[in-house]
């Protein structure tokens, strides 16, 4: 009774509430889209994805609209509209854009697997017919045939635009020369000598404080990959009968070595707790590590100048030198190298004006334009130094106005413009920086040892992309094998590295690893001619150093 | 009653456990605050624990001057305030009718709402909907994407239901309509629950991340979470830093990350005490006479 009389009123209230919400929605719909301004008459308009790293000062504008996008659009033959893509979520975001049909015309992304998936979904534009609109890139293709080889997909057409990188090491071991001198030792040439040196670093009190508080080396985070590469333990290699096989032997030798490092106390026994390598780096900067294996050297200036300065504040007599990979029982290897040919850019198959897209790419990779996008305006952000190279006028100004703009020229091949190469950042009149540059040059020389092999099947960006089912299999087995290997290192006498390999092999078989092996070999058989493998990497890098 | 020795030990034990748990929550944050205001040199060498070494606030200045943080902060505040208000409004307007027994088709509507808790449209279809409604690149996409959290709505609905029917009945006998009943009787009685849900929604909007990444294509509309997350992610991933070789500014220092996290967390810490007083207030003190 009571309820029934009130029911109509109730409905009205509900309706009112709903309509209020709907009205709010309608207001949302009526918001105008902006972004049509700055469109010069007659110029074609294209959209370009650009990483958003959250580092543009608010006063400078946004990824879509700032002094450099204005500069680009003022000088470029086409009008570019930029689509910001958050760096950390780039693949997810671009996938959504593609799936909803709103992806940009030019897509810049470093992720090989992602670009391959776009190719498989037929989302990419073949570029062969449009190359004529990018003569700068054609020139590059002629100079570096590898670019065409890698950018070509299985159907024989060119799909990817790439760049040539500076041919430096991706990581290198740094050894304390002052400790070696003090203990009257030589730079170790083999892994056995390395063990002797590390033992001395731990036991003979190289820092002279009377305490046994030094480590030989470090293995935390990804630094153990440096040990793996001494033994060529990467997972895959090419066998003598030209097949792709697993590197069980290499991994065994590497494991044995790691176990010795651990059991003889040559590394921090808590190395597994150092998840991001920060503790190891602190130990190194505090002068407690003899041979520092950095997870990666992403900035040579920082590793050879800034870090050394920090170290010297604590240990004024510290002397650092890069160390070549010692020869191991599995042979002589080089360190991993920065990917010399890196694919970065594809064009959306749905692009309305691929000609304009190619013209845009051509515009950006003109050396004089990339110089502006990477170094700024002459006289404003840099001036020519005595050596003819650009010198930054005011680093603070550049940090605000310029340093975030590099992604606009992401696909530019730095070594093609001598004014841009990173060695020019070192100021030769400063003794510390000169020493830093010498270190970099010495590290580069390690690559030239003709006996040394590349420690992996290829750079990971050039490895074949597994199908999604195989990725799942691979991830699961990989995790299991990592745990087994870790047990092999820290498991003490009862759990030997040999046993760990036996168990890892079993886990590989059990988890379906054979399928991956089959896939790899089929891929190798079909793509032998096109694949960019370790020896090709070394060959290219060596030719760049000549 | 006096406690036995065993009881005392038990109480001490409980206290120790609780103190340890609260320390695990507080200490990491203290560490971050200390990192953010220590000198960079001390941070590099790992000398900073819970007390700052060599006071230095330059990174805060850098954070607000050299990154879009200030703009993003403002955006976060707008998203949170408007979003929370809209969500609370919509949730109340849904929960209240559903809590009335005489609502027509009450069961099916509730079931339909429950259904959305179990099955969602998924990322791409939702994006397509937003896109075709021209809501992408506006905050409406964020607010409408999860306007009503079904879970919160159900909490509210059962709270409304728990208010004795006699309260509503006596008000209606005095001539109170539905709107008035809701505004003057039910809502004032529900303040503790409203405060809690406001906080839930507020924190949700403040921490909103994936929707912003997906629906907002304009940098100047991004919120703080996206900016700070970007800072934390970079360099955390080995492959990524190796890919972007020459990018000096990639190397976001530990200090800057700490500043980002502190700036991200502090506003919620500030808001919490203001809402907290409602949590402890009695729920229906003296609402029914006699």
From TrEMBL, chain A:
Entry keyword annotation includes Signal: yes
Source taxon at top rank: Bacteria
Signal peptide: 1-26
Keywords, ordered alphabetically: Signal
Keyword Ribosomal protein among UniProt keywords: no
Pfam family, one: SBP_bac_1
Listed PANTHER family: ARABINOSE-BINDING PROTEIN-RELATED (PTHR43649), DIACETYLCHITOBIOSE BINDING PROTEIN DASA (PTHR43649:SF12)
Protein name: Extracellular solute-binding protein
UniProtKB/TrEMBL annotation, chain B:
Gene Ontology process terms (BP): transmembrane transport
Domain of life: Bacteria
Residue ranges annotated for the ABC transmembrane type-1 domain, each copy included: 73-274
Residue intervals passing through the bilayer: 12-36, 48-64, 76-96, 108-128, 140-160, 256-275
Pfam family, one: BPD_transp_1
Keyword Mitochondrion: no
Location (main, coarse): membrane
Compartments (UniProt record): Cell membrane
This protein's UniProt keywords: Cell membrane, Membrane, Transmembrane, Transmembrane helix, Transport
Membrane-topology annotation of the record: Multi-pass membrane protein
GO cellular component term of the entry, any: plasma membrane
SUPFAM superfamilies xref list: MetI-like (SSF161098)
Tagged with keyword Transmembrane helix: yes
Family the entry assigns: Belongs to the binding-protein-dependent transport system permease family.
Official protein name in the record: Carbohydrate ABC transporter permease
Organism in which the protein naturally occurs: Paenibacillus aurantius
